[in-house]
């Protein structure tokens, strides 16, 4: 494969040969870029332009984030009608709330009048969403209910019902997690997840009563493209022994690092055509690192309910990404979303998820373990952030961008192993990374639902 570096673009650049109508949107200002030459799944090669090119990023927002199921939060963040929290879908601000009937809803956090946010708080409870710019107010069902000086619209064909908040096209939950999409044509969430649900259940289905969240949401900003983080959590056990060598020494009983049989553990890596991926060691003594958590679980009962393969694999130490930007780590109860903030920066939002049945002392032990390892100053998290920032920092050079990145580990090792659902490969593999970028490229080269509507 010959990889061709894309021409540089600048934010706000408008090609001379593009004419816009009255409602021309930013994503309409430039023709789409064919990314076929940037991702070569067959040979395991990727062009660095996918991390740096601004035009690609804008296309990504319109074709990847606008069409995919995106993680919003946990159902435990909404206890009663009127409760809300705010988040993002791509770079679009979103309100998630419970309406009067108890139904979970999600709206674009933007007033239909002049576009300001109608909610500026991170979370809380309210009876209505009122814009502080001109006072337009919306109820929990998204309907516009109050317009100051509404008589000023008397001479036009004014229909207040047409100016409610923009609602997501679909919303669904799985294992207590809330997902939504702007795409009315998206397949159901259950179909998007497919066999990935088996691996999620090993983490989020350990307690028949479900999960809860503790400690709020931890948020921090890192230099680096969001895909670097999402890809690693889906496919990369390979970096652990090198990048986290000092952290592993700190956590080992001897202070010398893990034993060879642990450092070179066998394992499996699952991946699918929808871009989802997870990897995990497989060992009869697979266990939780926080001692109180390990002692809390009845492993025999879990083997009976979840199956031996799940308990000895994806239930404890592993990594996972649900395409495009939701990831989790079962061993410490960490779930996180990688919010894109341009090509060069991401905002990480992280929760600690625990079984509902855990007593307080076990919950606290897991919360602290999560913070110490994968909080913003965690001994593992700092290593990861440094790697992503390093990759991003040097990805703008001309010569650097003529050299493809190697994603060839494990090529040809993918198979149905008869133990774990779906297609798996060895633990040390780039299989899930290849499928992650193949799915990204597929969406980037496919006109989205909103583009089809614009042509009609």
TrEMBL record:
Record keyword Metal-binding present: yes
Keyword Cell cycle: no
GO MF annotations, alphabetized: 2 iron, 2 sulfur cluster binding; dioxygenase activity; iron ion binding; monooxygenase activity; oxidoreductase activity, acting on paired donors, with incorporation or reduction of molecular oxygen
SUPFAM superfamilies documented for this protein: Bet v1-like (SSF55961), ISP domain (SSF50022)
Ranges of residues in domain Rieske: 69-152
Signal peptide positions (record): none
Region Disordered, annotated ranges: 265-285
Cited InterPro entries: ARHD_Rieske_2Fe_2S, RHO_NdoB-like_C, Rieske_2Fe-2S, Rieske_2Fe-2S_sf, Ring_hydroxy_dOase_asu_C_dom, Rng_hydr_dOase-A
Keywords from the named record: 2Fe-2S, Aromatic hydrocarbons catabolism, Dioxygenase, Iron, Iron-sulfur, Metal-binding, NAD, Oxidoreductase
Origin superkingdom: Bacteria
Family: Belongs to the bacterial ring-hydroxylating dioxygenase alpha subunit family.
Descriptive protein name: Rieske 2Fe-2S domain-containing protein
Provenance organism: Leucobacter edaphi
């Amino acid at each position: 494969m010959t990889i061709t570096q894309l021409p540089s673009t600048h934010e706000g650049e408008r090609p001379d040969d593009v004419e816009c109508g009255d409602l021309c949107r930013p994503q309409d200002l430039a023709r789409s870029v064919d990314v076929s030459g940037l991702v070569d799944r067959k040979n395991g090669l990727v062009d660095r332009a996918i991390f740096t090119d601004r035009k690609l990023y804008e296309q990504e927002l319109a074709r990847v984030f606008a069409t995919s199921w995106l993680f919003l939060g946990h159902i435990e963040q909404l206890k009663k009608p009127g409760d809300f929290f705010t988040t993002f879908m791509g770079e679009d601000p979103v309100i998630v709330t419970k309406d009067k009937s108890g139904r979970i809803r999600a709206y674009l956090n933007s007033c239909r009048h002049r576009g300001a946010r109608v909610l500026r708080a991170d979370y809380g409870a309210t009876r209505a969403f009122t814009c502080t710019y001109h006072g337009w107010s919306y109820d929990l069902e998204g309907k516009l209910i109050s317009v100051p000086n509404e008589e000023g619209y008397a001479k036009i064909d004014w229909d207040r019902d047409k100016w409610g908040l923009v609602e997501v096209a679909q919303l669904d939950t799985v294992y207590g997690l809330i997902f939504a999409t702007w795409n009315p044509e998206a397949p159901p969430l259950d179909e998007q997840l497919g066999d990935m649900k088996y691996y999620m259940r090993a983490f989020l289905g350990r307690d028949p009563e479900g999960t809860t969240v503790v400690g709020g949401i931890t948020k921090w900003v890192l230099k680096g493209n969001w895909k670097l983080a999402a890809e690693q959590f889906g496919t990369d056990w390979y970096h652990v022994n090198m990048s986290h060598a000092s952290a592993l020494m700190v956590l080992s009983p001897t202070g010398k690092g893990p034993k060879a049989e642990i450092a070179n553990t066998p394992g499996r890596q699952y991946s699918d055509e929808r871009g989802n991926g997870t990897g995990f060691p497989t060992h009869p003594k697979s266990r939780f690192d926080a001692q109180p958590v390990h002692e809390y679980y009845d492993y025999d009962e879990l083997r009976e309910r979840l199956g031996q393969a799940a308990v000895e694999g994806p239930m404890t130490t592993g990594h996972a990404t649900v395409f495009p930007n939701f990831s989790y780590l079962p061993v410490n109860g960490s779930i996180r979303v990688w919010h894109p903030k341009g090509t060069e920066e991401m905002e990480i939002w992280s929760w600690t998820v625990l079984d509902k049945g855990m007593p307080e002392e076990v919950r606290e032990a897991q919360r602290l373990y999560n913070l110490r390892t994968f909080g913003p100053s965690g001994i593992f998290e700092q290593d990861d952030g440094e790697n992503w920032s390093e990759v991003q920092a040097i990805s703008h050079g001309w010569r650097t961008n003529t050299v493809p990145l190697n994603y060839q580990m494990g090529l040809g090792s993918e198979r149905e192993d008869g133990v774990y659902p779906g297609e798996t490969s060895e633990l040390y593999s780039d299989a899930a990374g290849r499928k992650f970028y193949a799915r990204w490229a597929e969406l980037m080269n496919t006109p989205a639902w909103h583009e089809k509507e614009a042509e009609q």
